[in-house]
C-alpha cells in the first residue's frame, strides 16, 4: 500500500511541475512582449538602446527583468548593457509586476525541480 501512496504523490508532483513549467514559460513570453518591448521603444527614442546588439538564448529578457526587480544601486553606475537607473525611470508599475512574476516563476520552478529530484 505505501507504494500506491508514493505513486499518487509523484503523479501530483509531476502535474504540479508541469503547471509550474507552463507558468514560467508564459511569464517569460508575457514579460518580453508587454514589459520589455515598450521599454526598448522608449530607450530607442532616447538613443539609449544598445542591448539589442547582443542576445543569447533569452538573455536579454532576463537582464531587463533582473534589473527591474533588484535595486539599481546594486549594479552601480557602470552596469553592463543597460543603465538600471534609466530603466527604472522609464518602467511602469506593470513592467515591474511582470518582471517580478517572471523571476518568481522561474525561481519557484528551480526550487521545485530540486525538491522533485529529491523525491525520486
List the main descriptive attributes of the protein structure presented here.
120 residues, mainly alpha, 5 helices, elongated
Provide an overview of this structure.
The structure is a single chain. The chain is an all-alpha fold and 120 residues long. It contains five helices and no strands. The protein has helices spanning 2-45, 59-69, 72-75, 84-90, 93-119. The longest helix is centred in the first third of the chain and has 44 residues, at 2-45. The model has no long low-confidence stretch (mean pLDDT 85).
Condensed summary:
It is elongated and about 55 Å long.
Walk me through the topology.
Blueprint: H1 2-45, H2 59-69, H3 72-75, H4 84-90, H5 93-119
Helix pairs in contact: 1-2, 1-5, 2-5
Amino acid at each position: 500500500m505505501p507504494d500506491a501512496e508514493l505513486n499518487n504523490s509523484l503523479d501530483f508532483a509531476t502535474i504540479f511541475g508541469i503547471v509550474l513549467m507552463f507558468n514560467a514559460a508564459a511569464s517569460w513570453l508575457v514579460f518580453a512582449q508587454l514589459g520589455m518591448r515598450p521599454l526598448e521603444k522608449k530607450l530607442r527614442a532616447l538613443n539609449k538602446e544598445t542591448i539589442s546588439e547582443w542576445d543569447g538564448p533569452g538573455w536579454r529578457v532576463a537582464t531587463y527583468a533582473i534589473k527591474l526587480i533588484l535595486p539599481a544601486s546594486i549594479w552601480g553606475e557602470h552596469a553592463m548593457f543597460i543603465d538600471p537607473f534609466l530603466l527604472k525611470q522609464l518602467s511602469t508599475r506593470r513592467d515591474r509586476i511582470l518582471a517580478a512574476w517572471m523571476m518568481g516563476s522561474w525561481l519557484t520552478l528551480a526550487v521545485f525541480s530540486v525538491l522533485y529530484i529529491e523525491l525520486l
